[in-house]
Design goal:
mainly alpha; 64% helix; 66 residues
Amino acid sequence: MQGLETVLVRLAATVASSLVKPVVKSMVQPGTGAGLVADPVRPLPKPAPPEKLARVLSARIAHAHA
């Protein structure tokens, strides 16, 4: 029975690898128009001031312990 199990495992591995390779290959290859651009598409957000961070953190803590 071990011979049949080995054949089934090898067959399953072959099928899985043949299904996975095209998907991974398409994910790795860049699409058309992909690449570096001179300017970002949208501006990056400014860092939050410490007062806002403290306010949000205290609100989350208060909500968690309410």
